[in-house]
Amino acid sequence: MYDGRVDLSAFAHYLPQLAHPVVYNGDIHHPLTFTSLMAQFPGVAAWMLGRGLLANPFLAR
Fold first, then answer.
1. How far apart, in whole angstroms, are the C-alpha atoms of residue 3 and residue 61?
2. Exposure string (b/e) for 25-55, b if CB count within 10 Å is 16 or more?
3. Dihedral, CA atoms, 21, 50, 33, 56, nearest 10 degrees?
4. DSSP code of 60?
5. Is the CB of residue 52 less than 8 Å from the CB of residue 28?
6. Ramachandran category for residue 41: left, alpha or beta (phi over 0 → left; psi -120 to 50 → alpha)
7. Each residue's pLDDT tens digit in the chain (61 positions)?
8. pTM, full prediction
9. Residue 57, exposed/middle/buried by CB under 10 A (0-12, 13-18, 19+)?
10. For residue 46, what pLDDT is reported?
């Protein structure tokens, strides 16, 4: 049901302006993607693996 990709430039623009904790959810399918996003967005409070975890149950390992 989902089309397109996450707009990381818009996310980077708006994240510092948000007063509430932000939970990132979108297109994490590989551990390297996760570590890269964590480094790029240290202000994110929590991370959802969602469909990435369904596709690869060992992703959380």
1. 27
2. ebbbeeeeebeebeeebeeeeeeeeeebeee
3. 150
4. T
5. yes
6. beta
7. 567 788 999 999 999 999 999 999 888 989 999 999 999 999 999 999 888 888 888 888 8
8. 0.81
9. exposed
10. 96
